[in-house]
């Protein structure tokens, strides 16, 4: 198999994604097939070819460091699953 | 003719002459939605009351003589473009109740132009898919045949335009997500050049490939929408500070000075349906008869585009989707009081299978030890694909190809086989990798009566030549006049 069940689990952990025991095998099979297909790229000679990360050549876009209108606190918090006193509430991190 | 059947430019004329009002037009569209939406299910949210308010506002503007080509025109917006105060779900459970606190730049522009937003259109979750079957909310059906998919990921937008549930729409295109559903639903859809339209307020999928673009009933309407949404935006540092031409000015120029390129590799593409091949061949003949010169071009690396895309897009998606952690917005799984478990369960419950598959694939491709083999290799082949296009465009102005290898497939046919589904994007993905613009324009019907689209791709920031070619082809044919019998 191109990608093992352990690797799928490892990568899912890196991505903070819980996957059910029953789905691991399915993901390994499907992603394995996709990776085998992606391996056809090895037939392409890319020696000395620079990588492209953006199709349009861009340089850094600078702007003046000026204060502008921004979201008020209420709007920024409006979609929070849990909030209190102007803060996002998360489960306790330090015991 | 019913009001909902009007094109944007005809509705504009009637509004200007005060023969109809935006209230009447918007009401007609909302009634059409009520009557056919139960069959098609193109909309996640219909904003009827807000739309009627905007229509009233538009009528006031028109009575003051203050109008643009879009004032009072009812439009659908793909549900991954942020609309202030109007739920924007990305067709995902994780954003099911998300109400954006701001408008995307394209929405600001549409509102400034006086357009009426009737609702938010269904899509594949986070735009990942080619059939809209990956929506976490509902299944959209093709108005031409309700057993078939509308294409994707902008399937709701395409189906809404085809079924007369709006006069035009916005979609987004990362690997074909505007052009392929446009082709399957018999409408016109353009993916602009990367950097032509601001992505501010577009929920990110693969940031180096995503573009917002227009979908409409014909080429002129598509050009009118494009003119309104294009242009530099300081809020999107990848948008490009170039003047936006009035695309409608170019439509009536003939094709005598246009050279069209036909990629020789596409003749031999595997899995292409003979009826699609015949329709595209016929379209090339029509364009040649209109005076364009046809030359053969070569795009030898395009056969690798699907493999390149399925490294780059999932890698970027894996990073972009890290923000959905149940803290600042979106749904949260509250079964645990442990932070990491909260993240893991929130994401597992909130994301559908295709999104999870791509997060795993992208995270794998970027993980230690695999980066060079996958991401770097794919980025290098991307350079070769880009160079192919640069070379081809030395000898031609536009390139013609099919949009999709087959007409719309039936619901459920490909859902168990992700790779085959991915391969259906073979003709559209290369434009995203190269950042070039492309359009889908109706060019025929299969023996089952399903629409077939012709793809016209152009040089960077040369949308006008694409519109010009598409318009001349459209005016010489009748394919865009046929409507689905719902």
Q: Strand count, sense and closure of the main sheet of chain B?
A: 11 strands, mixed
Order of helices and strands of chain A: HHHEE
Query: Unreliable runs of chain B, pLDDT <50, ≥5 residues?
Result: none
Mean pLDDT of chain A: 92
| Portion in strands of chain A | under 5%
**Structural class of the helix and strand makeup of chain A?**
mainly alpha
Supply the CATH architecture of the domain at 5-43 in chain A: Orthogonal Bundle
- Low-confidence runs of chain A (pLDDT<50, min 5 residues)? none
Strand order of the largest sheet of chain B: 1-3-2-4-6-5-10-11-9-7-8
Give a structural overview.
The complex is a heterodimer of chains A (95) and B (486). With 95 residues, chain A is mostly helical. Chain A has a domain at 5-43: Orthogonal Bundle (Histone, subunit A). Chain A has helices at residues 5-14, 21-38, 73-77; strands at 83-84, 87-88. In chain A, 18% of the residues are buried. The mean pLDDT of chain B is 96. Among the domains of chain B are: 3-253, Amidase signature (AS) domain (Amidase signature (AS) enzymes, Alpha-Beta Complex), CATH 3.90.1300.10; 303-378, no CATH class. In chain B, strands 1-3-2-4-6-5-10-11-9-7-8 form an 11-stranded mixed β-sheet, with helices on both faces. By secondary structure, chain B is of the alpha/beta class. Chain B is 38% helix and 13% strand. The interface between A and B is large, with 50 and 72 residues.
Task: Please outline what is shown here.
The complex is a heterodimer of chains A (95) and B (486). Chain A has 95 residues and is mainly alpha-helical.
What descriptive keywords fit this protein?
heterodimer; A: 95 residues; mainly alpha; Histone, subunit A; two-stranded antiparallel ribbon; 3 helices; 2 strands; 35% helix; 4% strand; flat; B: 486 residues; alpha/beta; Amidase signature (AS) enzymes; eleven-stranded mixed sheet; globular
């Amino acid at each position: 198999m191109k990608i093992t069940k352990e690797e799928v689990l490892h990568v899912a952990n890196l991505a903070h994604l819980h996957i059910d025991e029953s789905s691991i095998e399915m993901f390994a099979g499907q992603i394995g097939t996709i990776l085998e297909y992606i391996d056809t790229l090895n037939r392409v000679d890319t020696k000395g070819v620079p990588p492209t990360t953006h199709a349009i050549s861009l340089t850094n876009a600078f702007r003046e460091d000026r204060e502008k209108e921004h979201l008020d606190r209420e709007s920024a918090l409006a979609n929070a699953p849990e909030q209190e006193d102007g803060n996002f509430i998360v489960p306790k991190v330090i015991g | 003719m019913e009001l909902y059947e009007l094109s944007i430019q005809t509705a504009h004329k009637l509004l200007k002459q005060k023969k109809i009002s935006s209230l009447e037009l918007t009401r007609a569209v909302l009634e059409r939605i009520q009557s056919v939406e139960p069959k098609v299910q193109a909309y996640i949210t219909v904003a009827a009351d807000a739309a009627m308010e905007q229509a009233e506002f538009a009528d006031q503007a028109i009575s003051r003589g203050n109008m643009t080509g879009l004032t009072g025109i009812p439009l659908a917006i793909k549900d991954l473009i942020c609309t202030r105060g109007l739920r924007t779900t990305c067709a995902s459970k994780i954003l099911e109740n998300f109400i954006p606190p701001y408008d995307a730049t394209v929405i600001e522009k549409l509102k400034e132009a006086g357009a009426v937003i009737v609702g938010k259109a269904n899509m594949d979750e986070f735009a990942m898919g080619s059939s809209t079957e990956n929506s976490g909310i509902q299944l959209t059906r093709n108005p031409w045949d309700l057993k078939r998919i509308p294409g994707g990921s902008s399937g709701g937008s395409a189906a809404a335009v085809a079924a007369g549930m709006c006069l035009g729409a916005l979609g987004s295109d990362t690997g074909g997500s505007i052009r392929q559903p446009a082709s399957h639903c018999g409408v016109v859809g353009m993916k602009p050049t990367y950097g032509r339209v601001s992505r501010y307020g577009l929920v990110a999928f693969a940031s180096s490939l995503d573009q917002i673009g227009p979908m409409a009933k014909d080429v002129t309407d598509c050009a009118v929408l494009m003119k309104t949404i294009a242009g530099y935006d300081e809020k999107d540092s990848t948008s490009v500070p170039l003047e936006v031409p009035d695309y409608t000015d170019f439509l009536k120029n003939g094709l005598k000075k246009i050279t069209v390129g036909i990629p020789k590799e596409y003749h031999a593409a595997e899995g292409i349906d003979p009826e699609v091949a015949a329709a595209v061949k016929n379209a090339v003949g029509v364009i040649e008869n209109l005076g364009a010169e046809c030359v053969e071009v070569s795009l030898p690396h395009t056969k690798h585009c699907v493999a390149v895309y399925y490294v780059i897009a999932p890698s970027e998606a894996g990073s972009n989707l890290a923000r959905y952690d149940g803290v600042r917005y979106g749904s949260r799984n509250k079964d645990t009081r442990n932070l990491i478990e909260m993240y893991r369960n929130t994401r597992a419950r909130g994301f559908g299978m295709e999104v999870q598959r791509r997060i795993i694939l992208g995270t794998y491709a970027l993980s230690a030890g695999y980066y060079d083999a996958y991401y770097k290799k794919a980025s290098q082949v991307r350079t070769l694909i880009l160079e192919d296009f640069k070379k081809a465009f030395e000898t031609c102005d536009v390139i013609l190809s099919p949009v999709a290898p087959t007409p719309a497939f039936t619901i459920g046919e490909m859902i168990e086989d992700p790779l085959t589904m991915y391969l259906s994007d073979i003709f559209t993905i290369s434009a995203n990798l190269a950042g070039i613009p492309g359009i889908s324009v109706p060019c025929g019907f299969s023996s089952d009566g399903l629409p077939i689209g012709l793809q016209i791709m152009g040089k960077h920031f040369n949308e006008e030549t694409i519109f010009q070619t598409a318009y001349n082809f459209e005016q010489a044919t009748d394919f865009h006049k046929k409507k689905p019998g719902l």
